[in-house]
Amino acid sequence: MRPEALRELLVAVAAGKTDPDAAFEALRRLPFEVLGEARAFARIDHHRESRTGFPEVVFAPGKTVEQLTEIIGVQRGQGSPVLVTRIDAGNAAAVLARVPGGRHHAEARALTFAAAGECGEPEGLVVVLSGGTSDIPVACEAALTAALARARVEEIYDVGVAGLHRLLGHLETLQRANVVVAAAGMDGALPAVVAGLVSCPVVGLPTSVGYGASAGGFAAMFTMLSSCAPGVAVVNIDNGFGAGYLAAAINRAASGGNRSSRADE
């Protein structure tokens, strides 16, 4: 249940407009709801958005279309926006045929279910960079996640260290950001370069792009972890969702907001 809906329910009970039994019925499946008859396959955490400011996210690999459909339906029934990550095109089409109101973000390999304006007014600024064109899918996942978490997002792609003049052409935008996400494979040097140019935190997002010795992103990750420039935090390889979520949390704090507890939303 979204924080706004929970607050409205409690205010209605206090004002005598809602029967306590009706309120209890609305809350009885909280804090989580078990899905599956013969054997539970999911326990949906309905209170997560109230605690953290962002609802539970659905990781698609390993789940059937039927399971995804049921999970999404239950989450939408609670009024929360839904993000499904790492879903292939075939499963995305199958889910959208069963659950109305969704959108497939092919480049980010994600599905979203959220009505216009449901996530609130964007705030602050998160800048998402990619070192190369091949890093864009992971960067897009980060940008989409941050946007759903109500960050204003600007995306700047293919500005890697092989041509630093491309990055420097966006220096003014970078220096206005509350946080920068830098996605890069190969040598993974982009976050360290950015951290030497800005005063805000930089989230290093290593990707699995690269030739043999890049070892599926480990070389990029180790480079980012060994950055000589301070202010770089590193997420897991190809973890665009994790980078976007962290960036949104930093952006929210820098913007003076706390979505899980603000009473004016």
Q: Would you give an account of this structure?
A:
This protein is α/β, with parallel strands linked by helices. It has two domains: about 110 residues, no CATH class; about 130 residues, 3-Layer(aba) Sandwich (Rossmann fold). The protein is about 40% helix and about 20% strand. The strands form three sheets. The chain has a five-stranded parallel sheet. It has a four-stranded mixed sheet with strand order 3-4-6-5, with helices on both faces. It has a two-stranded antiparallel sheet with strand order 1-2. Helix 4 links the parallel strand 3 and strand 4. The radius of gyration is 20 Å and the shape is globular. The relative contact order is 0.12.
Provide a concise account of the structure shown.
This protein is of the alpha/beta class and 265 residues long. Helix content is 38%, strand content 19%.
